[in-house]
Amino acid sequence: MTPEAGRITSQELRSHQWYGTDGLRSFSHRARTRQLGYLPEEHLGKPVIAILNTWSDINPCHVHLRDRAQAVKRGVWQAGGFPLEFPVSTLSETFQKPTPMLYRNMLAMETEELLRSYPVDGAVLLGGCDKSTPALLMGAASVDLPAVFVPAGPMLPGHWRNEVLGSGTDMWKYWDDKRAGLIGDCEMAELESGLARSPGHCMTMGTASTLTAAAEALGVTVPGASSIPAVDSGHDRMAAQSGLAIVELVWRQRKLSDILTAQAYEDAVATVLALGGSTNAVIHLIAMAGRSGIKLTLDDFDRIARTVPVLANLRPGGKYLMEDFHFAGGLPGFLARLTDVLHLDRPTVAHDTLREQLDGALVHNSDVIRERDNPLADEGGVAVLRGNLCPDGAVIKHIAAEPHLLRHTGPAVVFDDYQEMQRTINDPAAALTPDHVLVLRNAGPKGGPGMPEYGMLPIPDYLLKQGVRDMVRLSDARMSGTSYGACVLHIAPESHVGGPLALVRTGDLITLDVEARLLHLDVPEEELSRRRAEWTPPANRYERGYGALYQDQITQADTGCDFAFLARPGEVPDPYAG
């Protein structure tokens, strides 16, 4: 059979190795497919599409994805493909301890090995909660099949009395109000039922919305997918459209490597920064780019940040929520206001060029998606810091901090771990003032373990009662993308491996200067050398299991916290299906 121009034949499908030959193994594969209840006409000669589903009963962000998988199947069948659903690890940001970041690379490995080892021609990846988006795309990029990402979508806006609530962001706000004595248990009980009203991930510009927007900017979703509310009927239609799209991608053999180019990653960085997105995107995009064989660095983020304004007026740095963003034009409308900094001639999963994809995109509310001459901030929302306290870099989401703290010098108050901080932060004997710099260490990739979201250190109760709502806080941890404040994060190298953060002592002066991109420990080098000689490495936390693999292989924040053996280049052969 002669293929159409630019399209492969059924004999060139990867799944043909399993199903289409005359050998014993192929006979066995066909027989076992009959055992599953499928007719030959349903699957032979058709693209086999894996639907990787991160649904779980304990993941509220993904609890609707069981239904969305059915919509994806509907689209695959309509396009003449054969869908097969695979359950994969669910990374519930809310419930998984010590942190789902510990398990991001496990889902990435599972994704890679599942797609490599089964008779799969293409994949639809269902995720959205913070770590699932990068994990699925990291694994899929390592296999390099055609793939489409289906974002879980944001939940509905929260409500309490006469206020519209943003998940995460308003949790932090009202919890501080409770600690300050401004509201009580009755109000908190009401807030429990109003903060998160539906399936879907956080509807602020937290990590989930940031990463799904980055996926759309990369070109691996259908247009507009990242902002559709999870329970909107449009979300079902988007899932079906993704099923249609993946079959066409398989026939055209448009692989992820054709989509995930260096230009695509630059555009994703610009998108994240112009959205005022989560600091977590820095780690994840660096790791994702690494799996695509592309070197993305902290310096790239800082360089691009100086070229793009913040145009999304979204919490925690702005006013609105994701449903407002969606109906204001979503990411297509948003990107239409950034075309001068984007690479418009690269392909996406839905169009031959991003230019074609954005043609006709409109913005319907210029307070939600700002005009270029009326930005929320003149520069991108994340700054990269350097200095003797973070020789390999640190980050701060400065648009979510009180402006007076963006240039600050104050004495350090050091906590050796998160539990110590919880025990002692409210001790009046510490006599903390708003000028102090709170320092948390041993919360990084190895020390956390898993780099938990401890970076928004709590302000002492007695200062909250005085009206203090922000202080300079430093750590080698991460923080939730829904958080806010003058929090310096991802300090690298981390303290657990002997980074300068391990040498800080209470009373040392620390200078933060965001405009100068500086984080400096005001201690003479001779004294730091003496402290370094006295420092003793802490014991490893794990003696066996996945944790032992993690602590042996995890890289630092500035290089994406991938596993060294997964991040390095090298060929992996396709299995012999014989």
Automatic annotation (TrEMBL):
Alphabetized SUPFAM superfamilies for the sequence: IlvD/EDD N-terminal domain-like (SSF143975), LeuD/IlvD-like (SSF52016)
Dihydroxy-acid/6-phosphogluconate dehydratase N-terminal domain residues: 46-356
GO terms (BP aspect): branched-chain amino acid biosynthetic process
Source taxon at top rank: Bacteria
Domain Dihydroxy-acid/6-phosphogluconate dehydratase C-terminal per the UniProt entry, residue ranges: 367-561
InterPro entries xrefs: Dihydro-acid_dehy_C, DiOHA_6PGluconate_deHydtase_CS, ILV_EDD_C, ILV_EDD_N, IlvD/EDD_N, Sugar_Degrad_Dehydratases
Pfam families according to UniProt: ILV_EDD_C (PF24877), ILVD_EDD_N (PF00920)
Keywords (A to Z) from UniProt: 2Fe-2S, Amino-acid biosynthesis, Branched-chain amino acid biosynthesis, Iron, Iron-sulfur, Lyase, Metal-binding
EC number: 4.2.1.9
Single GO MF annotation: metal ion binding
Keyword Lyase belongs to the record: yes
Record flagged with keyword Metal-binding: yes
Family: Belongs to the IlvD/Edd family.
Protein name: Dihydroxyacid dehydratase
Source species of the chain: Streptomyces brevispora
